[in-house]
Amino acid sequence: MTRKTVRLTMAQALVRYLCNQFTEIDGERVPLFAGVFGIFGHGNVTCLSEALETVQDTLPTWRGQNEQSMALAAIGFAKAKRRRQIMVAATSIGPGALNMVTAAGVAMANRLPVLLLAGDTFANRLPDPVLQQVEHFGDPTITVNDAFKSVVRYWDRIVLPEQILQSLPQAVATMLDPADCGPAFIGLAQDTQEIAFDYPEVFFEPKVWKIPRPRADRETVAAAAELLKTAKRPLIISGGGVRYSLAEEKLAEFAAKHGIPVVETIAGKGALTHEHPVHAGPIGIVGSTSANALAKEADVILAIGTRLQDFTTGSWTAFSQQAQFISINAARFDAVKHRALSVIGDALETVTELDSALGDWKADERLLPQAKALFSEWNALLDEHQLPTNVPVPSYAQVVGVLNRVARPEDTLIAAAGGTPGEVVKGWRVKNPNTFDCEFGFSCMGYEISAGWGCALAQEGPGGTGGTPIVMLGDGTYMMMNSDIYSAALTGHKMIVVVCDNGGFAVINRLQQAKGVPGFNNLLADSRIQNRENPLHVDFVKHAEAMGAKARKAESLADLEDALKWAQDNDGVTVISIVSDAWKWVPGDADWDVGVPEISTFETVRAARAAQEKIRSAQRVGV
């Protein structure tokens, strides 16, 4: 029997394959690849763009303004979809490709899927060196695309058209694997994109991908149940894996049944609502006093879907030396950390099986009320810092409080680097599950506005909340990456952007001075500028309006509330700026291990070094 084939260029075949991949969200079959963010250059405009142009109704292409920002938008989309749908980010060779490396790092650190397609040099090398080619004298196979190898889960370079027959399915499987999820990169040699090949028709048959749910080893689940039953003061740490496994309801049911308080990581925040009966607050360096107090006293800690980053563990000072960990994680690499009893499996399935293994066992009935009492004290502290006052310059906490009150339950709060994460992780009171996105796995300045655009796209289909992305960021981050205000305005997607103008990089200035170094090169007033007494400030309102947004400057907290209500009624993008205090922060009580000079002429640095050594003496010994 003759194999049926269809003759297509490699670029055409790649696009046809993407168009025929599907998944299911809430019982509805939807395209696995929801669209493409693309910037075209000579490395992809003549072939890949030709293929994409013909499928605009099936696989829409959205024009980005910067390769990094459009890949960040793809990541924001994936997070809002909880890894069940994927966007593509496509760029030409050279600088365009390298611009995406930072975004690949964001996806890699946060275990999020995005397909990165970059043009590459000529496979035949006949016209070498081509425009934007960086030559390595001792190895002509190296191009700038090799830079992605350290920040992606899957990497390939297509130099023969038939290679996509093996490469594309592997890339998709990697991005959908809960244990190995992350970005996939494929470099497309310019001359290979143009080559026609007789592809087997079966390669393009529609396929519905199911995200696997690996079950844990039964004996390990039983061992975890036995260890948990010995606990006097157990604690659950809920990580991002709970959200991506869609295990929120099961976790809440499990915790309530067995009387165990739940604290959340940064990525895990939003699995439970703020007022849920088992919720005891965020844990760690940007966490709550309630969660950190529970962590310090816990004897058995059930960590679910978390990679136990230093901001969660207080650089491993948040727990007692005697505490024992049970780690449920789809990824073996994460599950075995710090001598944990490793239960390798899907969060939803494993919690279900652990629930069965525990039977009617329940923790001390006094534990949950004690946790809620601690959480009430934390909420009172938040109220103290968030309530509006007549201060001329409001704090971040007060801005968060106003945003939180005005936000609708279905709206999603988006934040990333700078001072914002600490304030929103501590102070944002989640009203509905899956409405909080703080990118702090990579702490990437510039993620916020781009992710807002991606999140807005994600709300349109199944799995979306139907709400509006509310982006909160500082002036320093705004200056670093703001062009997707224009992107969202162009495409008609709605988001609200709140810019807290505190005169520079305020939170890193806080860390710098806390470790004894005089303020230097972070706040504008401490930088090498023409006029330190009156630094030049950006008019964020005029800047945003120039990119097609509606904009307003809030002069007070009351004005901010009015502006936010106005923004809720607007279509498209609304930007609100407000001057905020660079020195006031909600207090925290967890330690952080950072490098402090061993010797210094500053007495303040020497004192900070002594304090840092004390922190290190309290760290748990582990791996």
From TrEMBL:
The lineage of its organism: Bacteria, Pseudomonadati, Pseudomonadota, Alphaproteobacteria, Hyphomicrobiales. Its EC number is 3.7.1.22. Residues 221-354 form the Thiamine pyrophosphate enzyme central domain. The gene is iolD. One of its GO terms (molecular function) is acetolactate synthase activity. Keywords: Hydrolase, Membrane, Thiamine pyrophosphate, Transmembrane, Transmembrane helix. Pfam families: TPP_enzyme_C, TPP_enzyme_M, TPP_enzyme_N. The keyword Ribosomal protein does not apply. This is 3D-(3,5/4)-trihydroxycyclohexane-1,2-dione acylhydrolase (Decyclizing). Residues 36-132 form the Thiamine pyrophosphate enzyme N-terminal TPP-binding domain. One of its GO terms (cellular component) is acetolactate synthase complex. Residues 423-578 form the Thiamine pyrophosphate enzyme TPP-binding domain. It is an enzyme of class 3 (hydrolase). GO terms for biological process: inositol catabolic process; isoleucine biosynthetic process; L-valine biosynthetic process. The chain crosses the membrane at residues 86-108. InterPro entries: DHS-like_NAD/FAD-binding_dom, Myo_inos_IolD, THDP-binding, Thiamin_PyroP_enz_cen_dom, Thiamin_PyroP_enz_TPP-bd_dom, TPP_enz, TPP_enzyme_TPP-bd.
